Structures are given as structure tokens and as C-alpha cells.
Structure prediction request, 267 residues.
Amino acid sequence: MADAASSQSNAAAIWALGVTQIIGYGTLYYSFSIPAPGIAAEFGVAIEWIYGCISLALLAGGLISPYAGGSADRHGAGRVMSAGSVGAAAALIVCALAGNALAFLFGMILVELASAFVLYSTAFAFLAQSTGPKAQRSITYLTLIAGFASTIFWPLTSAMLGAMDWHQVYFVFAGLNLLICLPLHLWLSRFSRLAAARMPQPAATVAVENPIDRGLVFASVVLGFSLAGFISAAILFHIVPMLGSLGTGTAGVLVASLLGPARWQAG
Prediction:
């Protein structure tokens, strides 16, 4: 009975975390390519300038990621994600209030800084802290759920832009992070503390000398993931406008929205 209750609790935590990841990726990552032409037109800059803002913001998010990971280790990933939800909402509000290109760049940097505290890297740390030996399986389930972020938010963002301007869209996105993600992250924080209290302590292990140059292996892994991430990010940001330039219209958005589940299946 205890194992069944624990499994149900873990499943509930994964689904709650999946909802926050769908909203997080949908509002903080996938949403920017669709309103980008309208933002560029309003500020009187080339659309490449807007994509340049996103690239600089992603760099800032990458630079702060080690600090976010250390904070998750020190304070618990649930608490870090709770604070990140507040930061994400505030950053999206800054974007919504932007009156010029530089203000939008500032808001974008804040968005990606907040992303480091709420998206996959911190979510995976949460699962490691709360599910222990089951973390690998839990992470697999989470990536499947979160893979539908583009499926939901690309069509949703397009539909919203048909009824309101991009400023209002970002206000709505800020509300989603504050009213849905924050309460779920607060609940997950409590769940993590309870799970850690009942988790058995791992047995001590003896370090074994490895003849492989670990520095070289690590550098190779970092390079490989960096190149793969570079290509993946470029595709994700440009696939909707590329399909739009082919005259696909709404159908292009629907086709692009299948990319998230397709990428998970390919992985």
C-alpha cells in the first residue's frame, strides 16, 4: 500500500511539473518567434534584430545556469522554481511594457534569466531530489509531457494574436506563470521535502580510478550538446516563419506544432 501511495504521489508530481514545463516553455521559449514580425514592425527595426535579442538572452540564461543549479542543490529545486515563476511573470511584464527595442532586449534577457530557474535543468534536479532511484524514468515521462509545449503554444499564440496585440499576449503569459505555475511549484516544494524525508540514504561508495581522461570526455560531451542545441534552437525559432514564408499560413503553424512530440519520439 505504501509503494502504491508513493507511486501515485510521484505521478501527481510529474503531471504537475509537466504542466509547469508546458507553460514555461510555451511562454518563455516557443512564443517569441510568432509575434517577432509584429514586434520588429512596431519598433521600426529589422526582424533579425529581434532574433538577435533572443540570442543574447539565451546566452545570458546559459551563463546563469550554473548558479541556478547550485541554488537548487542548496535550497531545493521546488523553492527555486517557485521563485523562478515570480521572476518569469515579472520578466514577461517587462516585455509587455517595452516601448522600444532596447527595453524589449532588457525584458528578453530577464525572461531567459528566469528560464534557468524554472525549465528542464531545475525540473530534472527536482525529480532527482524527490524520486531518487526512479528519477531517470520520471525524467522520461516529464520530457514526453513537456514535448507538447510547442503543440499547444504555437497555435495558441497565433490565435491570441488574432484577438489582441503582442503586449497583451505577454501580459496573459505572465498571468499563466503567476496563477498556475507558482501554486504548482509551491506544492511541489512541499512534496519534495516530504519525499526527501522518507527516501532511504544511499550507501557509501568507493571511488574507482578511471584511466580515461575525464576532462577530454567532458569537453567532448559539452561540445556535442552545444552543437546539437545550436541547431535545435535555430530550427525551433525559425520553423514557423520559414513555413509561413512558403505560404502555408495557419497550416504551417499546425505542422510546426507537431515538432515537439516528433522530437521526443526521435529521441
The domain at 7-266 is CATH 1.20.1250.20 (Growth Hormone; Chain: A;). The mean pLDDT is 80.
